[in-house]
Amino acid sequence: MNIILLGPPGAGKGTQARLLVEDRGMTQLSTGDMLREAKDSGTEMGKRVAEVMARGELVTDEIVIGLIRERLLDTSHTGGFIFDGFPRTLAQADALGALLDNMNQTLDCVIEMQVDDEALVARITARSTCGDCGEVYNDQTKPWPADGKCGNCGSTNQTRRADDNEESLKTRLLAYYKQTSPLIGYYYAKGDLKTVNGLGSVEAVAGEIKDALG
Ligand code: AMP
């Protein structure tokens, strides 16, 4: 099964993708994570995308489609893919359709995670992640453990994303509404779209996604 988690920044796509990986043995493909890795490794491409990401704008279709193509060609992945943060433009959606067609694979479901804008701002400005295992924390609802160690892997490497600030978030939200939200209609028309309420607890949202996937 191949699925897309679609939603604005802070909707909880990464958190839910991690649960699906644990529960169903699927493979998470997060273009945001891939780009951050490229940035940290200091490659030429990483340097080019760093400023774009810090501003909260979208990286070019060519770059992200190339990253996804590379991962899809890696045949060691089994259990299906969860596309997290990809596609974000209509051109990316078309490219993904063509890539899956070429592999004789299908897209089985697109889950739109709906969250209101004020909740997104509150979530993102309170967000931190474990730099080693990627576990997501929230200063209010799931604070980083008082002993300073990640509850999942024991690392002390608490990190906050450079683009998780109010200024970049405005640009990221605008990019979502201008460039990504048309995908809701695109996948609705294809008959692939299911919508869940992303505002509930992590467990409640996971339950809705489970129902949607059947
Ligand atoms: P994310 O971790 O999904 O919130 O992505 C962080 C940043 O990476 C975004 O604000 C964009 O600058 C860039 N990015 C991630 N995925 C894509 C994509 N599919 N297309 C273009 N830019 C992306």
In short:
The chain is an alpha/beta fold and 214 residues long. The protein has helices at 13-24, 31-40, 44-55, 61-73, 90-102, 117-125, 166-180, 182-190, 202-213; strands at 3-6, 27-30, 81-84, 109-114, 127-130, 136-138, 158-159, 193-197. 30% of the residues are buried.
Query: How much of the polypeptide forms β-strand, as a percent range?
Result: 5-15%
SSE pattern: EHEHHHEHEHEEEHHEH
Spatial gap, N to C terminus: 11 Å
Largest sheet: 5 strands, parallel
Let me know the average pLDDT. Answer: 94
Q: What compounds are bound to the protein?
A: adenosine monophosphate
Pick out the low-confidence regions: none
Tell me roughly what share of residues is in helical segments.
Answer: 40-55%
Based on Cα principal axes, name the global outline. globular
Helix and strand composition category: alpha/beta
Strand arrangement across the biggest beta sheet: 2-3-1-4-8
Number of strands: 8
Number of discrete helical segments: 9
Calculate Rg over CA atoms: 17 Å
